[in-house]
Design goal:
The chain is an alpha+beta fold and 351 residues long. Helices cover 55% and strands 11% of the residues. It folds into three domains: 136 residues, DNA integrity scanning protein, DisA, N-terminal domain (YojJ-like (1, 3-Layer(aba) Sandwich), CATH 3.40.1700.10; 127 residues, Ferritin; 62 residues, 5' to 3' exonuclease, C-terminal subdomain (DNA polymerase, domain 1), CATH 1.10.150.20. Helix 6 packs antiparallel against helix 7 and helix 6 packs across helix 17. The longest helix is centred in the middle third of the chain and has 35 residues. The chain is elongated.
Length: 351
């Protein structure tokens, strides 16, 4: 199966249109129960019409599960204008460019792959022998699975995500300690963002599988949301603290997403994406993440605090009398900040 880590929106929308309870899902079930195969183009326009030859033209025929299943009993392909909810062609012969590449061996699936490449439309191929439906998009193939299979895998992925969340939290806690004690290195920053990207990839797979669960997805969504809660914000603040000034966190996440699984597993590869020359390079935070934990502290005041002091060490050891010199910091706020800094120092020393 070829599946990009960041599933295209088009695939997600298609899976939603085929989720349990939809007419298309019911049609696929009928086709497989009847032990029939099918080749269904899910789109219409001049680009699709150009590859159709022969068959029957269906004028103003609305789409229903029963009609699609009956048409699948014929040998040719079916064209379904999914957006308009109408059947357009039946028993038609599809003639995509034969020079288009295909890794498929079966005639039906090879045609489906080439039609998707030729027209840009999704094509659904249902195997007669295996009773399995497969979606083809340009450059992408996705095999549909039963709700039971999806739920089993989603539960396994949730367990994996929970394990990675613990590792992420541990990496963040380690970075907290080493930042305060002044011994943080690029390796510790890499560990946090590496685990964040791993969690994102697992989450993408969960989101894609959850779409196919239909009404069963609600509980999964709650678990998934709970496991990822706050992690993205923490990762962005780590970038604000340690990467070059003006770095766009979204751009960094985009670069991390292009790494292969083996590259992501190598801290040196991740370090290159983050702009570090080597993993043991000493790093010091600007203080964004620590100050972000202060309730109702305006971002402008946070920036003033960071700009006022020479470095993080000077900031975290500042007396209340020094803190009040910063515009926007009164005596009560200075005392609040001093208590926060003291707790951070005590936490680091308690290791």
């Amino acid at each position: 199966m070829r599946l990009t880590m960041a599933a295209p929106r088009e695939l997600t929308a298609l899976l939603q249109s085929m989720a349990p309870g939809t007419a298309l899902h019911q049609a696929i079930q009928r086709i497989t129960q009847q032990r029939n195969g099918a080749l269904i183009v899910l789109g219409w326009g001049p680009h699709v019409e150009a590859v159709c030859s022969g068959g029957f033209v269906l004028d103003d025929t609305s789409f229903t599960a029963a009609r699609l299943a009956e048409l699948a009993k014929m040998d040719g392909a079916i064209v379904l204008d999914l957006e308009a909810g109408r059947l357009v062609r039946a028993n038609t012969h599809l003639q995509p460019d034969p020079h288009l590449p295909s890794t498929e061996t079966g005639a039906r699936h090879r045609t489906a792959e080439r039609v998707a490449l030729h027209t840009g439309c999704p094509v659904l191929a249902v195997s007669e022998t295996r009773s399995v439906a497969t979606i083809f998009l340009p450059g992408l193939k996705h095999e549909l699975e039963s709700s039971a299979e999806l739920l089993t895998r989603v539960n396994q992925l949730l367990v994996t995500l929970e394990r990675f969340r613990r590792r992420f939290d541990s990496a963040v806690e380690r970075l907290d300690r080493y930042e305060v004690t002044g011994i943080a290195t690029a390796r510790h920053v890499v560990a946090v963002l590496q685990r964040m990207e791993l969690m994102h990839r697992i989450g993408t797979r969960i989101e894609l599988d959850t779409v196919g669960l239909g009404g069963q997805a609600e509980f999964v969504d709650l678990q998934y949301g709970d496991l990822l809660a706050g992690s993205g914000g923490v990762a962005s603040l780590v970038m604000d603290d340690h990467l070059a000034e003006g770095t766009d966190p979204a751009a960094i996440f985009g670069k991390l997403a292009t790494l292969s699984a083996s590259e992501l597993a190598d801290p040196r590869e991740v370090a290159v994406v983050l702009g570090y020359s080597h993993l043991e390079a000493e790093v010091s935070p600007r203080g964004n993440r620590l100050l972000a934990s202060v309730p109702r502290l305006p971002e402008s005041v946070r920036a003033s605090l960071i700009g006022h002091f020479a470095d993080f060490e000077e900031l975290i050891h500042a007396d209340p009398s020094e803190l009040v010199e910063v515009e926007g910091i009164g005596e009560s706020r200075a005392l609040q900040l001093r208590r926060l800094f003291d707790r951070a120092l005590e936490f680091a020393e308690a290791e």
